[in-house]
Amino acid sequence: MSDSIDTHADVIIVGAGIAGIVAACELGDRGKRVILLDQEPAQFLGGQAHWSLGGLFMIDTPEQRRMGITDSHDLARRDWMGSAQFDRAEDDWPKQWARAYLDFAASEMRPWLHEMGMRWFPIVGWAERGGSGAEGHGNSVPRFHVTWGTGPGVVAPFATRLQAHVAAGRVICRFRHQVSHIIVQAGEVKGVSGEVLAADSAPQGAKTNRQEIGEFEVYAPSVIVASGGIGGNLDLVRKNWPRDRLGAPPENMVAGVPFHVDGRMIPIAEAAGGHVINGDRMWHYTEGLRNWDPIWPNHGIRILPGPSSMWFDALGNRLQAPCLPGFDTLATLKEILKTGYDYSWFVLSQKIIEKEFALSGSEQNPDLTSGKWLEVIRARLMSRGGAPAPVEAFKKHGQDFVVADTLAELVEGMNRIAEVPLEETHLRRQIEARDAQVDNPFAKDAQVIAINAARNYRGDRLIRTAKPHRILERKNGPLIAVRLNILTRKTLGGLQTNLDSQMVGADGAAVPGLFAVGEAAGFGGGGYHGYNALEGTFLGGCLFSGRQAGRSDLIA
Ligand SMILES: Cc1cc2nc3c(=O)[nH]c(=O)nc-3n(C[C@H](O)[C@H](O)[C@H](O)COP(=O)(O)OP(=O)(O)OC[C@H]3O[C@@H](n4cnc5c(N)ncnc54)[C@H](O)[C@@H]3O)c2cc1C
């Protein structure tokens, strides 16, 4: 092989998701020669970030202040540490990353992104409110900043920077290059090797072929692993499942991430000296829908629910606080699985679905993804007698939805898709009890109290929380039930790294020449979330860890 710029560089990056792209941009800015490899075709550029809602965790921003939210670095730190509950010796680097990200999110992050042209939807929201204790998991204030243009709006400014580096010859992109080996000789990183895969014109996000048509080797003294997590590989998710905390892994799950989030690169990095920590920490959702119009295999869509739907386990028993819609992901997951079944139910009214069902994903939010105000106003504020179009489409076509005028018909429909039959009288008693609380300003029902609290925030009252009403009252109907599946998404643990994104081996020593960024690095350090994530911190961690690697003096 000739010593050409096609095969020799200063740095090789494995993975053209957002973390890899950010690292490539920053390295290109420093005049480094970069080879960026990805197993998928060029149209997949941006990886999962393209599909994301583009929500970013930032602290004390002008958007928050305009909404009357008082936030601070100190409050965010307390929220983060209360959520993370770091308790392991190996949490040393993750803790340092958490602190460093908090500093970044409270200072440079927004100006850096703003300068590149990024803007945010003015209503700052909650993707996850958290548990019920002041010292426990959760956000004390809304911090989820949805980017105008959603996921594609996050990728776009970096893709533009990347193209400029490609045009200048500083960055070479090689798609359909699947890395299978990191070449290390006499303790020194030399490059990577793997297979060239056959071209594939599949639409972005779909499953592509793995037909090998050749082999390749490329050389550089530094390799950055930016290969994402494991959420698309359900066997790997089950293998790493935290049985001690959550019980047996679910038999049925839907995939909240594309097929390429396969985890295959992680053991390859370990074989070269990397070290995975916190592999049992993961972030999967409990409100997954089977996509009626799937893009990737077993494609699941997550509902980001407002607070009003009633939540029942598979046996028809109402979940208790903090297992309320949008509150505490892992506590709810545990409660659901305790029943021995891996699904649960939302029961709600048409009025609730119209205001409270947001679907996660750029393609499910065409108005926000368009980045145009007119589209947003049309879809969210001017829609009469219906939820946003993608939600109505699920209601009509989704196999997990039941719509009926009476509770008897609803339960009949639920029982057609249930594994364990439900009794109408059992559900009716619980819904009537809840309904009796809604007119009472001194309600004792924790969920009704939570609904009233949510409506104290202008943002929630405007677009996220339906006016309290009786679910069983006909004028608020029809009634809707949704069978909710467990949906895989984020890998919280990963390759241990120091603050330069350099891998740290099992012996605690830095591994010269090897770096990891994004989800592959547990978003920084090998798991900077600890046990629980505050949302918006996944993209945030990819941006930050990619930047740290790209700016590191350790990459010569
Ligand atoms: C629907 C959805 C909504 C989301 N919403 C949000 C949100 O609002 N806020 C938030 O913070 N986070 C969100 N996330 C999470 C966030 O998008 C991801 O965690 C993040 O984009 C991961 O980026 P990454 O660069 O680390 O990895 P990826 O995007 O997974 O990219 C990794 C790349 O590496 C390539 N690769 C892997 N192995 C190899 C190999 N051996 N050889 C060559 N190439 C390889 C893959 O093909 C892929 O292109 C969402 C995710 C999804 C799917």
Automatic annotation (TrEMBL):
Keywords: Flavoprotein, Oxidoreductase. Pfam families: FAD_binding_2. Its cofactor is FAD. It comes from the Bacteria. Residues 10-539 form the FAD-dependent oxidoreductase 2 FAD-binding domain. Gene3D superfamilies: FAD/NAD(P)-binding domain, Succinate dehydrogenase/fumarate reductase flavoprotein, catalytic domain. The keyword Phosphoprotein does not apply. NCBIfam families: PRK12834.1 (NF009472). This is FAD-binding dehydrogenase.
